[in-house]
Amino acid sequence: MSISGAIVMYAVLWFLVLFVLLQNGVRSQDEEGDVVPGTPPGAPAAIRIRRKFLWASILAFVPWGVFFAVLEFEVLRLDDFNFLFPESFHRENLNE
Questions:
Q1: What domain range is 32 assigned to?
Q2: How far is CA 62 from CA 8, 20, 55, in A?
C-alpha cells in the first residue's frame, strides 16, 4: 500500500467513524433546560466536537490497522477464498 493510499484509507475511515460518533451523547437544549433565544429547542446544547474528533482518530486507527496489515503483509490473499468463486475464476484457469 502506498503512503497516499494509506492516508486516503485512514481519512475515509476517520470520517465514517466521526459520522457515527456525532450522534452519540448529544442532548438538546430543551433537555438541558437552557434554550438560547432564536434557536429551536431541539438544537444541540453541547456537541463536544473536540472530544469526538479525538475519539474518531483513535477508533479509526483500529480498522485502518487491520486493512493495512491485510494488504501490506498479505495476511489474506484472494487464493484463500477459492470456495467463493466458481472453478473458472481460479488463478490456474485464468493463465490458460
A1: 3-94
A2: 15, 15, 11
For the stretch 32-75, pLDDT in tens is 888 889 989 888 888 889 999 999 999 999 999 999 988 888 77
CA–CA separation, 75 vs 83, rounded Å? 17
Grid cell digits, residue 87: 472453478
Torsion of CA 37, 52, 15, 73, to 10 degrees: 180
Number of domains in the chain: 1
User: DSSP label at 58?
Assistant: H
| The residue count for the chain | 96
Query: For the chain, what percent of residues have pLDDT higher than 90?
Result: 43
DSSP three-state, residue 19: helix
